[in-house]
Amino acid sequence: MISYIKEYIESLDKDKLNTLLIKNDISLNVDELNIIYNHIKNDWYDFIYEDPTPILNDLENNINKDSYNKLFEVYKKAKEKYSIYL
Hints:
By secondary structure, this protein is an all-alpha fold.
């Protein structure tokens, strides 16, 4: 499963990410999008398989509260839905 996730992350660009966020009713400014994009590209393994608290704390402090709350809900649902595969 790790290889599939890694391939997807490597193919992810900011436009794809923004489209995914918009589909989940999450609107970000350019700086916020860059913060999330950089965490995904650089910290995906830690976020999925380790303790994501430092990453979540950074996001909470650097993106608007409404977007963070929506993003966190998407994260929780995805973690629950796909946890058996991870």
